[in-house]
């Protein structure tokens, strides 16, 4: 191993430790790692640019801007109240409704944004019913990660995988969407038995829910209509990506520009609401992983994996799926996926069919986030909302529910992948 390879590995490991321990803000840690790669001559500035995935950044920025405009219409609160009323105020039906809403929204919007919108409404509805919101909160955390797994734009790892592998929206729906539907159904079945006692309320409480007026939640009806139209166009653009040849990042940015032009919102306010720290984190991360790629470390790891599995597809699928899930249960899945992408691409250079491996990586990394409270950002955000409102969700209490369901999810994914590709 050369001195350049050793330096690159040390910089990568130090950066990852800083990100995982959260002693340093993850954006600062990633950017510091990128700067060190340049200072130690692992990369120069032009190399850095070539390793940054602009398409992934385009999807992230575009969808963040779009969601920032849309949520000002009040449509998300409207949907929550309307679904509670359609469920006749019955606790179990409300849980099913909120789980499905969370999963569907997370398939098209950022998971954190989704739980920030659904969480407060859940507290309001359960408050009226006089029941414990924790089962609802936990089910929504799990649903947000499951829904995000189903589509190209649902979770950052999928955006990264789709961009690197040239996979489209329909590819994800067919290969990750189907197992997610099965997993979601099994999860609801588990919750039906787990929390049957917590779902008992009197008729008066249900009548209070039925008396809510969902129309009051709409702050701007015109903006809501415009948002729905633009959302339909964005989704259509994602679905037709392979036919039109227009990258998903361009579709997302086009949708953002259109809604900014016709939404009549304060553009300065909307643009400032973008999570620029997240964007800087991605840029720094791409550069750090690019450093490993530049000095040949990724090639070495890929060769080791090919030798270990001897090119056996079933073995490769199982290793990537389960390793991704178990690691992502405790660590941020974005750095892990950023490291795995060039490794899988390098494995493909040996003549191996790597398409199934992308689905193993996606299912493992995204569903693995349900294993513990720190497995995904949405977990931390929604548990914090619950705790601040007097209903604490601890690491232990969440893991008791989340980890078994994560294992069930990966078991279902294992069966799906082996039947489909092995």
Question: What's the structural blueprint in terms of helices and strands?
Answer:
Layout: H1 3-21, H2 26-39, H3 45-51, H4 54-70, H5 75-86, H6 91-108, H7 111-129, H8 134-149, H9 156-165, H10 169-194, H11 203-210, H12 221-239, H13 241-244, H14 248-262, H15 267-272, H16 276-294, H17 297-309, H18 313-328, H19 333-348, H20 355-368, H21 377-388, H22 395-421
Helix pairs in contact: 1-2, 1-16, 2-16, 3-16, 4-9, 4-14, 5-6, 5-7, 6-7, 6-8, 7-8, 7-21, 8-10, 8-20, 8-21, 9-19, 9-20, 10-22, 12-14, 16-19, 17-19, 18-20, 18-22, 19-20, 20-22
What is the C-alpha radius of gyration, as a whole number of Å?
22 Å
Runs with pLDDT <50, length 5+?
none
Q: SSE order, as H and E? A: HHHHHHHHHHHHHHHHHHHHHH
Total beta-strand segments:
0
Shape: globular
Structural class: mainly alpha
User: Mean pLDDT, rounded to whole units?
Assistant: 88
Number of helices: 22
How would a textbook summarize the main sheet? none
Percent helix range: over 70%
How far apart the termini lie comes to: 35 Å
What percentage of the residues does DSSP assign to strands (E)?
under 5%
